[in-house]
Structures are given as structure tokens and as C-alpha cells.
Model the fold of this input.
Amino acid sequence: MSRILVVDDIPANVEILSIHLNDEGYEVVEALSGKQALSTLHQSAQDGEPEIDLILLDVMMPIMSGLEVLAQIKKDPLTQNIPVI
Done:
């Protein structure tokens, strides 16, 4: 089963995406901020959990924008090859 990380600061958006993706058979991991997303990615890699196969990333978020999160993801060797939409 593919794992998708959904990142959005609006809980309703995360919930809607999660419901639809779960209905299609995907395992969904949720993050409500850029900081939480990066923490989730690193924790997943360190704990040996199944890899995140795709990241759905909101661009406009407070504190750390989606573009800032993307830059951090792409410069980390553990996460740089994960596709991001």
C-alpha cells in the first residue's frame, strides 16, 4: 500500500483529502504544518517505517511556507527523491 503525506494548515482540507485517498486504498499520514511534516518524514526514516511514497504539500502555510518545506525536503538525502505535489 502506498503512503501519502498530506500537509496543509487547514484541518478540513487534510480531512477531505485523507478520506478520499483512504477510499482509494492509500495509507495517509497527516501533518498540519511544515515543521510537523519535516518531523514526520525524519521520524519515519529513522524508525524504519514504510517509506512515504508521495507528499501533497500546501504552498501557503504560516510560519514555514510549502516552498520552504520543499527546499528542506529536496536538500535532505533521506527525502530528496520523494515526489512532491
Q: What stands out?
A: The beta strands are 3-7, 27-31, 54-57. Residues 6 and 30 are 5 Å apart (CA to CA).
